[in-house]
Design a protein that fits this description.
9 strands; 4-stranded antiparallel beta sheet; 4 helices; 3-stranded antiparallel beta sheet; alpha+beta
Length: about 210
């Protein structure tokens, strides 16, 4: 059977000093009622120290039960910025080789021919020069130095009054020349596929026998 009794608990607040007998003072307040609705409150201004209002007292129980929350903005900024930076910096493909896969490296042009030596022969001239790998050569010659100068770097075609011959080794004897005639010559190296042309050498001259 349920207990339907209603209990009325009343408390009496008794001001007691350290020197008073609590039991004696309590008798004076016994059987007195205290109505909370009739209590009046007086607003007290906060104490000001050095121009700043004193901080509100901290309720230790409240601080323990309800610890301060971390700033949501900091968490959002950190996660957002880190995610964005990592994705932006590391998400794209990076070519570690340092080369652009979309472009082809062009082969270098052969070096300029040097150390040309000319030997006089009867109605002929014998030439030798420093050899290079994976190239062929062109020899341009003429009895006129001015006409020979019209064949510029990057050009292999003969002009009027000149001749250009192809050579596969670093030596050549040019025959069927005129007797006792001075000739002007220059040589250039060309890649075997003919796509890269080296610079023409300096002009050398010799007189046939």
């Amino acid at each position: 059977m349920k207990n339907n009794k209603v209990y009325d608990y009343r408390y009496t607040l008794v001001p007691v000093s350290n020197t008073d007998d609590s039991m004696t003072v309590g008798k004076e307040y016994r059987d007195q009622s205290f109505d909370m609705d009739q209590v009046s409150y007086e607003k007290v201004d906060p104490v000001v120290t050095d121009g700043e209002p004193a901080a509100d007292p901290v309720d230790e129980d409240e601080a323990i039960l309800n610890p301060p929350k971390e700033d949501d903005n900091n968490g959002g900024n950190n996660s957002g910025s880190n995610t964005g930076n990592n994705t932006g910096n590391n998400g794209g493909s990076i070519n570690n080789t340092g080369k652009n896969p979309g472009t082809k490296q062009t082969a270098k042009a052969p070096k300029k021919v040097t150390k040309i030596k000319v030997k006089k022969l009867k109605k002929a001239l014998s030439l030798r020069w420093k050899s290079q790998k994976n190239v062929t050569y062109r020899i341009a010659y003429s009895t006129s130095k001015k006409k020979l100068s019209k064949i510029k770097n990057g050009k292999l075609k003969a002009v009027k009054g000149t001749k250009v011959i192809k050579v596969t080794s670093a030596k050549k004897t040019i025959k069927k020349l005129k007797k006792s005639k001075r000739y002007y010559l220059k040589i250039c190296a060309v890649s075997k596929k003919g796509k890269n042309i080296g610079k023409w050498s300096g002009v050398v001259s010799a007189k046939t026998k």
